[in-house]
Each structure stands twice: as structure tokens, then as C-alpha cells.
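[scheduler] slot 2 assigned
[scheduler] job type: sequence-to-structure, two independent chains
[scheduler] chain ordering preserved from manifest
[runner] begin chain α
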Amino acid sequence: MLRNLFLMLFVLSLAACSKNDTSNESATSDKQATEKSHAEHDDHSDNEHHDISQKKPHDDHADHKDAEDHNKEGEKGHEEAGTVHLKPEQMKVANVIVESLVLKDVAINVRAPGEIKLNAYNTFKVSPRINAQVIARHAKLGDEVETGQSLVTLSSVEMAEAQGQLLLADKEWKRVKKLGRKVVSARRFITAKVEYEKANANAKAYGMSEKGIAALLAQKRTADGSFQLVAKQAGRILHDKFIIGDYIAPGYELMVIANESTMWVEARLTPDVVSQINIDNAAEILINKQRLPARVIQLHHTLDETTRTSAVRIEVSNDNDRLHAGMFVTALITIDNQTKVLQVPEAAVLRSADGDWQVMVEQDEAGEFKGVEVNVINVSDGNAIIEGKLNNIGPGTRVVTQGAFFVQSELAKGGFEIHNH
């Protein structure tokens, strides 16, 4: 019995020991697994951090290099966009000529719009001084007439009375002169003379010519009130505003006769420019691609109320009858200021993309050109006076004086290709 109890206790003891060993082994196994997991995690983290720390500097270096390369390419692109390189063959084919700028003594001309006008000093208006009726025409529009030539015949009641008084006064004066001062009184002599002179003056004032009066007094015609208006100067009939039978009031403009051998051009300029112009200054008139020499003859001293400009009157010869009143022309007037300036052909100055004036300037290398902005002071006679906007243009600067448009086109083409790659 005791033996059985002892055996039972021994078996239970062995079972308990076996269970403890199993628990310890399990715990040890779990602990080892946990430690291994932590170790792997630590190793992984260390490797990852190491990889990141090792990779980041390399990546940053690569990115920095790419950025620098991109910037360099951008800078190179912009630099190339500002200049153009032409080969000698291109320049020869396009006839590109490069010259150094020099200071020149230039008589500056100002350009102004002008209008052809009749020379008022060589123009005559034909009009009656009394009420009259047109009964005959002796010249027509466009005719060239000579001084004293009959133009139109008029008839007037007032002229008839003046002619009658002239005939009576002439007869009395002739009688008194024939008798002489010894027979007639001094009073009668003087009165007869005065009446004749007054009647003669009235007939002339009413429009009778010397020739007409002579014919009347010679009894070659009657005092019918008719009389002729004659040309007071040679010229061309430019206006003809009547028909036969018209009843004309005093002062009515029947005809206008003008000598067109010289014409006037009225050019309008701002007062500050007019102040630099003097009478007798040289000028030129541009019309139909022709240049006619002219000179300044008058300066107006009043301003136009609308344009606030002042007129300059220019006289120009019209030998070939090319100029007619009302035509619009361009006037080039030489001003008094003469100074040393930078002058280039007008074709050498071009508009840039933003609308400013520019010239093509040669750079350090032959065949390399860049557009440089300039101020255009004046354009005259196919030449332009310029100055640099930033003092980068001066004597010695090499500028394209011929073929500038080709150079600018090549420059624009290069800029387009760079910015659109």
C-alpha cells in the first residue's frame, strides 16, 4: 500500500518536472524568436538608414548636377538667342556690309507735310466793280492769256452814264484847250480840265480799259454802256464761274488768272522746330519720287487753333507745270543747327520685336551680330541720325549698313529655334 502510494507520488513528480522543462523550453524558444526578430529589425533599420544616408548625398549630387547642366544650357540658349553667327559665304550672298560709325557734319533737315498753293503775288481775280450783265466771252478755262488780253464783255447802265459824261467832258476840255488861257478865264480852264480828268477816272474805275476809252473818245464806238475786262497779268485761267447772260454783282469772281511758274508750299511744324528755321533756308519738295529745289520765303507767327502748329511758306519753281494747287507733298527743310552726328543709311535701322528701333552691331568675333536699340533723331534724304540708348553706340562701333534686314531675319530665326526646341 505504501509502495503504491510512493510510486504514485514519484510519477506525479516526474510529470511535473517534465511540464516545467517543456514550459522553460517554450519560453526560451519564444524569447529567442523575439530576440531574433528584434535583431533582424535592428539590422534592417540600420541597413535602411545606412542605405538612405548613403544614397541621399549621391542623389542630391546628381540632382544638383542636372540643375547646373540645365542652367548652363539655358544660359547658353539665351546667349545664342541674342546673337547670330553668319558665315562669310552667307554675308557675301546677302551682300552684308559692315562699317565703323564716324561723326559727320550734317545739315539737319526736318520733314513736314505740305500743301501746294497758288502764289498769291502772281494771282489775279477778274471781277466787275459795278452791276453788269455778261454779253460776251473772249477766253475760257485753262487758256494761257497775256497782259491786256480781253477776257469778257459786260454791259451796264452805270457805265453808259459814265461814258456819256466822259464824252461831254472830253469835248469841253478840247474846246478850252484850243481857245487857250488868253481867251478863256482861268476858272473855266481849270474846271474843264478837272471835269475831264474826273470823267476819265470814273470810266476806268467802272472797268473800262485804256484801249476802250481811247476808242470811245475817237468816236470809234458809242456810249452804249458796254465794256471789256482785260487780263492785268499773264497767266492761266484757273476758274471760270459764269455763263453769258448772267447778271453780275460788284465783286463777283468771274475768273482767276495765275502765273504758275512759281508755286507756294505751306508746311506745318511745331513752334520749337520753326524757331530753328530762317528765311532763305534751303528746302526740297518731294513729289512722285522726285526732288524739287526750293527755299523758305515766309514764317507765320500765329498758330493753327486746331493743330497748334505754325506754317512755313516755301517757294518752288514749277517749270514743267508738275505742281498744281491743292496737291499734297512732303517738304524737307534745312534747319540752322549743324552738328556732328552718327549717321547710317535709313535701311540700316529696323524695328525690333518690341517695336523699338535697332541696328545690327558686330560683336567681338567677325560675323557675329547682335541687335542694339537706338534712338532715331532724324530721317532725311535716305539717311538716319541715331544715338545709342545706353551709350553703347559711338564712333568706331561696327554696324551693318547694308543687308541689315537679312541679319535681323537670321537673328529672329535663331531665336525661334532655340525657344521652341
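[runner] end chain α
[runner] begin chain β
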Amino acid sequence: MTTLPKQNRIYLVADEQAFRTSLEGALIAAGFELRTFASQGEFLRAVASLETGCLISSLQGRAGFELTEEVRRRGLAFPTIVVADLRTPRTVTRAMKLGIAEVLPRRVAPDRLAEAIKRVLAIFRDLTRTGESPSTMRARFLALTALERQIVERLVSGRTKAAIAAELAIELRLVEAGTSRAMRKLRASNLTHLIRMVLDGGIKLSAISLAVIAFAPRIGVM
């Protein structure tokens, strides 16, 4: 059974000493219980004995993502933030598929990182407490309108709201409204939570959309 993370416990894995040092003081001052690791190997040697907390991975190249893959391979669950050189919609989507909650730029301000940590820990606690079954999640997706499903599908694939509006040939305000309705129906606390729900639940949005549209006259969903 996955344990709930302590409100302020975090693990910082950073192979750059200057970066590690610059964050240590700021995060401790922000009230976090911090433990640092200088490499992926150092963290993995200790991970089995660690209590659940927020993992912050700042490693060169793809190592931050690889660390998350190895942790998951071992059957462990840590809400994770990756600090990377490049943050793009594609990078964020890839991160979500690996169970990474957030990707932040390397020059992230300490106060922004602190807020991200609090947000990620809150989402992780919500997901762990609810323990809702995949069938329950799929039932909620079936309650979305065709437009809401199209918007969610594109958000999960990494598109921005502006790009979605252009692709669907609708106004941006309609995309924003559709996103808000979908989040409310799916009980997602924010966009990151929404994407995690879709990916963790193994939801195949395109397949669901086709199925619902096919039965729309019968069940009255449009």
C-alpha cells in the first residue's frame, strides 16, 4: 500500500553542487525537511529505506527521466518534479507518461519551486486517498461532451489551449470553458492533476470518443 507523503519532506537529487547548494538554504528556510543526493546512484542506493516524499531530480541530459523510470521499475511511488534545461509541451507530456508531476526550468526561482512542491504533494495525497478504480474514471470520461473530450485529448498530447482553439477552429474562450467543465466533471484540482488522471488511468480518449459518438443518439450525449 502506498503511504501518504509527509507534508514537507523532499529529496533533492542534483549532480551540480552549485545548484544543490543554492536550493538547500532556500528550501529549508521555506519549512521543508530536506535530504540531498549528489547523484542518481546515491539516491537509488538509499531509496528503499526512504519514506515517501517529493523527489526533485536535477540531473544532466535524460538522467532525470531515467531516475523516475528506475524508481517506478522498483515498484516505488514518489511524487516527482524534474528540473530540466528545456521545458516544452512535448517534454511535459513525456514526463507525465512517466508519472512525473511537473517539469521546471533549471533557473526556477526558489519560491516557484516551493509552490510546485506543495502543489505536487497535495495532488499525490488526493490521488492516493481516493484510490478510485479505472472503471469509475472511465465512467466520468464518458460523461464529457464530444468537445470536452477533444480538448482533454489534445491537452494530454501536449498542445496549448491556443493551439487547440486553432486546430478545432473555435475561440480560445470556448477551449478555456471546456477545460474548466472537464476538470469539474473529472474532479481534477488543476491541469496537472487532470493529465495525471488520464495517463495513470490508462484512458484511451480517442477510443472513448468514438464509442460515445456512435451511441450518442441512444444515450443523449453530444
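[runner] end chain β
[qc] chain β: Strands lie at 9-14, 33-37, 54-58, 80-84, 100-105.
[scheduler] slot 2 released
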